[in-house]
UniProtKB/TrEMBL annotation:
Pfam families, alphabetized: DUF1289
PANTHER family in the cross-refs: DUF1289 DOMAIN-CONTAINING PROTEIN
Domain of life: Bacteria
Protein name listed in UniProt: DUF1289 domain-containing protein
Entries under InterPro entries matching the protein: DUF1289
């Protein structure tokens, strides 16, 4: 599965006070720290997000955005 640099789809609800982003599924902490995370840390987040969307039987939202 191809991945963009970030799972962000520019519909971030963490800026509105949500703990989990309604757009990509990352936590507030993950969104806030994404640019400072190591590749290994990001990989763990990617794996969790991919499993999350698969469990919902929905494609990851970053695959549907215009890149």
């Amino acid at each position: 599965m191809s991945r963009p640099d970030s799972p962000c789809i520019a519909r971030c609800s963490t800026a509105l006070g949500d703990e989990i982003c309604a757009g990509c599924g990352r936590t507030f902490v993950e969104v806030a720290n994404w640019v400072a995370m190591t590749d290994a840390q990001k990989e763990l987040v990617w794996q969790r997000l991919e499993a999350h969307w698969q469990a919902l039987d929905r494609p990851p939202p970053w695959l549907a955005r215009d890149i």
